[in-house]
Structure to design on (602 residues):
């Protein structure tokens, strides 16, 4: 029982960051119809940016996190302006190929800049775990959950309560009608991609200090993000949040009770099963896929 | 006319390659180009003729390599039995994935194929008793042909050349048959094709099975050539290389993937002296982006169009 609780708590730590990854990806897909295979690379970017800001620029930890998120947004905006905007009229498959190219190019740029050695990102939290009754949790993990929850809450407020969020939701529902109502679609696309990329960078910046930063870390992150989005239903924000938590917990339970070697298989199996049996996602009421 | 002469010269050059290529290293590059030709042709059946992108194609290659290596090592099967078994096993995997995933299209199909490759790769790493895990299987025996052992590079080259030529012929016959026409019809307009009685799932699954079986053959040829199989055969970069070969050469043509395979095997090897491996992968990414922007139909269709426009 105590072991189960411990797995659940660890799962929520992972799940919070998976939810961040998933929200970013689901926004980009839902709004722009871009299958963003480079999403995980923004996660890698976030982790390395934090490492660089801490180790090279000597910034304090929280400022380094903020810098990583801002950098994620900037690179995302740049990517949208230079590569995605000219291809907006192209088919979804063409754009997907370009994003696969971006994925490979970004990953190998990281490899060239930082080398293949895994880097450990220093953090200011004490290493001794906090003991809460039967549970042990490292303070840094507690911080990751809190920060992820705050970012998810902020995203939700942005999308549900602001004028920009209204414009984004309008574009999501019907791009042409939104354009007729005066929504600047081009800008909304840039902002959406930058926002989604910033969330991925935030996930990388938060998980980087818990694990390690290495160039291919984004591959798994991309797949996790896709699993989350598929679990939650494409374009479904609340679904992505729930899907992220669910995947995190499922992975921890899988690693704890089945085999730690197959931890990452949980996401793959989830993708396959959900797409086969509930292609609209676990939480969809209406058909969203199309 | 010019094309025929060029093709004849190219064919002659390929058949006599071991005679005029002095360095065994260059022959090695040609052998790998042959194996990748089979892979590119096999991926092209799915991507080029049905329009479905499989980003798990390395899984079929790896399944073929492991099947062949395991049968040869654990059961002492000869290469000539192991190779068809590899094709059958990979084809069966293709059938299973096709049955399951070809209800889906586009991005969803891509994701199922990636996930499938991910699971298979994890199995190859974790199932120590069967696959020896990350250490891999060394000592895969070379094929034997009557009294000879195809241990030398020239001998293996002819084996791979024959395999690539057969694959080309199979693909050629296939795409010009009723099946090939049905696949193209499905790619161009699925509802219309179904309205004239083409069973989409049946034909797409058939294409997936043949494509996977061919990739399995390439895997078997690879295993008995390098004589070592490890979970690296499932590396995503293999799949990416195949995709780039097909798209750069020209998807939906038969010559395109062949040219793409030779070009993108030889080019990195030529660049190897000049630049580090990381630059090469970086260049792959950039090449893919540039191709989609400037040469979306690939080299062969673009050249064909250029020739047509000059003819008038």
């Amino acid at each position: 029982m105590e072991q189960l609780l411990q797995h659940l708590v660890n799962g929520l730590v992972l799940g919070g960051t998976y939810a961040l990854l998933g929200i970013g990806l689901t926004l980009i897909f839902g709004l722009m119809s871009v299958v963003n295979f480079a999403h995980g690379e923004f996660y890698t970017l976030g982790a390395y940016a934090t490492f660089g800001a801490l180790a090279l620029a000597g910034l304090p930890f929280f400022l380094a996190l903020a810098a990583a998120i801002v950098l994620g947004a900037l690179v995302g905006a740049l990517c949208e302006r230079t590569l995605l905007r000219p291809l907006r009229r192209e088919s979804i498959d063409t754009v997907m190929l370009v994003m696969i190219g971006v994925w490979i190019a970004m990953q190998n740029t990281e490899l060239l800049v930082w080398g293949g050695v895994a880097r450990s990102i220093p953090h200011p939290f004490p290493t001794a775990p906090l003991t809460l009754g039967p549970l042990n949790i490292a303070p840094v993990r507690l911080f990751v959950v809190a920060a992820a929850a705050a970012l998810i809450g902020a995203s939700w407020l942005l999308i549900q309560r602001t004028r920009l969020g209204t414009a984004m939701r309008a574009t999501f529902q019907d791009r042409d009608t939104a354009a007729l109502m005066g929504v600047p679609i081009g800008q909304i696309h840039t902002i959406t991609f930058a926002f989604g990329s910033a969330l991925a960078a935030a996930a990388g910046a938060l998980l980087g200090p818990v694990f390690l930063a290495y160039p291919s870390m984004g591959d798994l992150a991309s797949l996790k993000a896709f699993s989350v989005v598929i679990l939650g239903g494409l374009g479904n924000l609340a679904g992505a949040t729930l899907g992220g938590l669910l995947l995190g917990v499922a992975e921890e339970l899988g690693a704890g009770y089945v085999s730690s070697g197959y931890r990452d298989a949980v996401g793959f199996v989830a993708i396959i099963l959900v797409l086969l049996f509930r292609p609209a996602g676990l939480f969809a009421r209406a058909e969203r896929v199309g | 006319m010019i094309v025929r002469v060029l093709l004849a010269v190219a064919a002659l050059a390929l058949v006599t390659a071991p005679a005029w290529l002095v360095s065994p290293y260059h022959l090695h590059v040609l052998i790998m180009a042959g194996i990748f030709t089979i892979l590119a042709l096999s991926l092209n059946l799915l991507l080029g003729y049905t329009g479905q992108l499989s980003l798990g194609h390395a899984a079929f290659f790896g399944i073929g390599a492991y099947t062949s290596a395991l049968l040869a090592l654990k059961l002492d099967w000869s290469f000539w039995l192991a190779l068809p078994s590899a094709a059958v096993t990979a084809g069966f995997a293709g059938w299973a994935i096709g049955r399951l995933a070809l209800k889906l299209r586009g991005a969803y199909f891509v994701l199922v194929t990636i996930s499938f490759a991910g699971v298979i790769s994890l199995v190859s790493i974790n199932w120590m008793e069967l696959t020896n895990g990350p250490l891999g299987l060394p000592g895969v025996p070379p094929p034997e042909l009557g009294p000879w052992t195809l241990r030398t590079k020239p001998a293996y080259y002819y084996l791979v050349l024959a395999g690539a030529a057969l694959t080309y012929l199979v693909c050629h016959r296939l795409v010009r048959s009723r099946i090939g026409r049905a696949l193209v019809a499905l790619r161009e307009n699925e509802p219309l094709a179904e309205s004239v009685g083409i069973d989409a799932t049946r034909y797409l699954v058939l294409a997936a099975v043949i494509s996977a079986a061919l990739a399995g053959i390439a895997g078997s040829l690879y295993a008995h050539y390098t004589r070592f199989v490890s979970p690296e055969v499932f590396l995503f970069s293999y799949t990416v290389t195949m995709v780039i070969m097909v798209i750069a050469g020209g998807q939906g043509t038969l010559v395109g993937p062949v040219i793409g395979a030779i070009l993108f095997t030889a080019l990195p090897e030529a660049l190897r002296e000049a630049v580090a491996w990381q630059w090469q992968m970086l260049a792959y990414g950039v090449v893919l982006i540039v191709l989609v922007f400037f040469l979306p139909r690939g080299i062969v269709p673009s050249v064909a169009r250029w020739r047509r426009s000059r003819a008038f």
Remarks:
- Strands of chain A lie at 130-132, 135-137.
- Residues 19-216 of chain A form one domain.
- Confidence is low (pLDDT under 50) at residues 286-290 of chain A.
- The longest helix of chain A spans residues 2-32.
